[in-house]
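User: Run a structure prediction on this.
Assistant: Running it now.
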Amino acid sequence: AGIRPKIVPPGAPPADFLVQGAEAHGVPGLVNLFGIESPGLTASAPIADLVARRLGLGDGRPR
């Protein structure tokens, strides 16, 4: 957690709400969340459900 620069290569769209699992980085049990800014608080419950599903937790049903 913390403040980090948002670096975007020339011609590439910004990566808002980027969720990376083991398929992207090869580390089982790690889920990276990038680009989650002010709307992230409003979206925190659905993001938590997505992370839980990625980790094989919960039943995936909306709360």
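The chain is about 25% helix and 10% strand.
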